[in-house]
Amino acid sequence: MGTRRDFIKISALGTAGIAAAGSAFSMLGRSALFAAGNDGQRSVHAVKRYPTYCEVCFWKCAGWTYTDRAGKIRKVVGNSRDPHCNGRLCPRGTGGIGMYHDKDRLKTPLIRVTKNGKQTFVRATWTEALDHVAEKMQEISGKYGPESFAMFNHGSPGKHLGHLYKAFGSTNITAPSYAQCRGPREAGFAATFGMSVGSPEPTDIRDTRCLVLIGSHLGENMHNSQVQEMADAIDNGATIITVDPRFSTAASKSKHWLPIKPATDMALLLAWIHVLIYEALYDKDYVQRYTFGLEQLKEHVKEMTPEWAYGITTLKPGQIRQTAREMAQASPATIVHPGRHVTWYGDDTQRSRAIAILNALLGSWGRRGGFYFKEQVSVPSYPHPPYPKPRWSWKEALNGKYPFAGSSVSNALIDASLPEADEKYRIRGWMVAGTNLPLTMPGVDSLDRAFNALEFITVVDTMPMEITGYADVVLPECTYLERYDDLRTSPFREPFLALRMPASEPLYDSKPAWWIAKELGKRLGLSSYFDYEDFSEVLDWQLKQMGSSLEEMQKIGVKKFPRKSGSLYLSPGEDFSFNTNTGKIELYATDFARQGFDPMPVYNKHPDPEQGYYRLIYGRTPAHTFSRTANNPNLTDIKGENLLWVNPKVAKLWDLHAGDLVWLKNQNDVTTEFPIKVRVTERIRWDSIYMVHGFGHSDKKLSRAYGKGANDSRLITDVRIDPLMGGTGMRGNFVTFLKEDPGKEVKS
Ligand SMILES: Nc1nc2c(c(=O)[nH]1)N[C@H]1C(S)=C(S)[C@@H](COP(=O)(O)OP(=O)(O)OC[C@H]3O[C@@H](n4cnc5c(=O)[nH]c(N)nc54)[C@H](O)[C@@H]3O)O[C@H]1N2
Ligand SMILES: Nc1nc2c(c(=O)[nH]1)N[C@H]1C(S)=C(S)[C@@H](COP(=O)(O)OP(=O)(O)OC[C@H]3O[C@@H](n4cnc5c(=O)[nH]c(N)nc54)[C@H](O)[C@@H]3O)O[C@H]1N2
Ligand code: SF4
Ligand SMILES: [Mo]
């Protein structure tokens, strides 16, 4: 059993720390870092630029980092060759330099110790910290095997540390971008088209004539090129249809806003399918040629008329019919957007299936203005010995649950870390890199219990975020502007590569993840997996295999490659075999049927709030990414806290006024730690309240974010798990208002 792990606020940093090691300079091999910028020389007189790609969100826009004469990073701008951004970064990308300049950054490695019965962190040298991590990894692996280690990651550091984990013998590597984000749509689209959606989504928005957004709030969700393409599509006269209980930015640009009752989207989708089939508006040639199961689907949605859906969604039947007709009119240049954060109500794979089916009926998959066939550059992997074969992985640990999980399920790995987990597949140690689990994972109870049960936790982060408070060892990574990382290769219309290189030496005593992985590898006897001094050697080797070089990429940042997989779209009458059991687009999902799941999506009623409670919904704001930017000095200037959107009717009932501070209590009596300011607005339905996710930080060391706004994650205690792929439905929670601080007695 692990020992109880107190949450340590890093502000309570022990003073008896060990002196920090010398600067990062010598250990990194500076010459390799600065060998080549624009002109190959680092001049103190010239302003210089270095290629990078953004880490503020996972659109990964490529840009240039500019340094001043003293070598200090001054600005980041977009790379005009890059299709992810077309030369323009979003506010978060531009504000990304705030991550580098933030004085609250993690500065040295930290080790948890107990002093006079109290747990605290002491500063450590890298040698001490890495020796300690490697020793614990060996000790725990000696008892339970390397598979007993799980890694939670998001973003670039996970690539390097994941390689270390696989070399060590564990494939229990997971990211919240699956089961807390896009997993259900990947499973739903794969079951339909035999292809998942992936990131960036292959939505051909620039040429679309009708874009349907179902809770997908582009414009607040700032996925760069998608937002730019949407703006162009609007200019070109495309019809936008937005389904959202809130009048989102996208809704304000829409011809039709459908203010749906939350949690009822499935009824709307089925009614739209009904209209397309029963009014014979679907693409007959495409459906006949490419799909399987139209007859079953027709029978299935027979009674699911707009009138039926009206009683569930509160949307007028005329509006449901009209919007279906407009979608059909514009087809195949119609996109029913798959959304991205789709873990809402626990039946999300089936909702995504309904969206996929609509696209199939409209003939938009593989068509201009619908979805294009994406392609990505395949980067050769740097030579290393084969990975050992683990005795078990997250798949076995699932024990038959979530048969359509195409990627590891973070929440299932947390469950596998609990004392009651099957001993055979129990997780004993974690490494967490680039994910702030206390604000990311719903159901904080399980997370707390896992923290207490684990024998060892290492956290690799750039900031003293909440997750670091649970670590035994904290390893400070330098920011993305100060390091090399893997080449960015993402599926797009054309294959592209982008390079990230350091524009400055790492500030303080921080290090890149590739170096951390390599140094741990050395201590674990895995040096043969890290056969290089500097990561730039790996990149150069890979680039040379592809007919480029590090030198070339340092000059251009982004390189385009010719498409090899054929056309972006299906050609008229083309024979095409989809990667499904039937070789067709499956309106009737044969795999789901085989495993005992509904082969066609079914509407199930979700619970409504009790009297006096409102559904908690949340989303994004253009200037922030989750919690990772909440303390960013450039971005807190734009927006420093989240607000609580309350409908005027509700505000009147509760005597709430704009600017009032309230606390929230959920259906399980869990309350927010900090108050949130009320915003009274007609832009939200009366049955829901809304806030932007990522605020309400509880770590005092985050000097700008501490106590600002409310943390939605804390209130998400009722988690509806998707039985097909394990996604955590987070929108079945209800809250009421408290005008007094519920923690007052405890605090005084
Ligand atoms: N309640 C609620 N929960 C959610 C969501 C929601 O909307 N509401 N959204 C869900 C979705 S869609 C997603 S994708 C996930 C996102 O979940 P996360 O990716 O976990 O999001 P963040 O909270 O931003 O955590 C990022 C962490 O990475 C650290 N970090 C930033 N840059 C670096 C770096 O370069 N190196 C290292 N080592 N660390 C770095 C930050 O300091 C921070 O601790 O959350 C999911 N969870
Ligand atoms: N600026 C910014 N942009 C981001 C991010 C960020 O942190 N900041 N994060 C990125 C990531 S990882 C992701 S996954 C995406 C997420 O972005 P999306 O996939 O667009 O967003 P969601 O969080 O799924 O949806 C939020 C919207 O759903 C609405 N909604 C709530 N309940 C319902 C309902 O029952 N039905 C319907 N139809 N709508 C409902 C909300 O009112 C809100 O407008 O954003 C990405 N882009
Ligand atoms: S969309 Fe914005 S935050 Fe995301 S990668 Fe691009 S510039 Fe960075
Ligand atoms: Mo996400």
- The secondary-structure class comes to alpha/beta
Helix content: 25-40%
The CATH top-level class label of one domain: Alpha Beta
Q: How do the strands line up in the largest sheet?
A: 5-4-15-14-13-6-7
Polypeptide structure, described:
The two termini are 35 Å apart. Strands 5-4-15-14-13-6-7 form a seven-stranded mixed sheet, covered by helices on one side. A six-stranded mixed sheet has the order 21-23-22-27-20-24. Among the domains are: 199-368, Dimethylsulfoxide Reductase, domain 2 (3-Layer(aba) Sandwich), CATH 3.40.228.10; 614-747, Barwin-like endoglucanases, CATH 2.40.40.20. A hairpin with an 8-residue loop joins strand 1 (48-53) and strand 2 (62-67). It is an alpha/beta fold and 748 residues long. The protein is built from 27 helices and 27 strands. Helix content is 30%, strand content 16%. Bound molecules: ligand MGD (2 copies), iron/sulfur cluster and molybdenum atom. Iron/sulfur cluster is lined by residues 54, 56-57, 59-61, 85, 89-90, 92-93, 222-224.
In short:
The protein has 748 residues and is of the alpha/beta class.
SSE diagram, text form:
Elements: H1 24-28, H2 30-34, E1 48-53, E2 62-67, E3 73-78, H3 91-94, H4 97-101, E4 110-115, E5 118-123, H5 126-144, E6 149-153, H6 157-168, E7 173-174, H7 176-193, E8 210-214, H8 224-235, E9 239-243, H9 249-252, E10 256-258, H10 265-278, H11 284-290, E11 291-292, H12 294-300, H13 306-313, H14 317-330, E12 334-336, H15 348-361, H16 394-397, H17 410-415, E13 429-433, H18 437-440, H19 444-453, E14 456-461, E15 473-476, E16 488-490, E17 496-498, H20 513-523, H21 535-545, H22 550-556, E18 558-560, E19 585-586, H23 590-594, E20 614-619, H24 633-638, E21 643-646, H25 648-654, E22 661-666, E23 676-680, E24 688-692, H26 712-715, E25 720-721, E26 728-729, E27 734-738, H27 744-747
Parallel strand pairs: 6-7, 6-13, 8-9, 8-12, 9-10, 11-19, 13-14, 14-15, 20-24, 21-23
Antiparallel strand pairs: 1-2, 2-3, 4-5, 4-15, 16-17, 17-18, 20-27, 22-23, 22-27, 25-26
The structure holds ligand MGD (2 copies), iron/sulfur cluster and molybdenum atom (MO).
Residues 177, 181, 340-341 line the site of molybdenum atom.
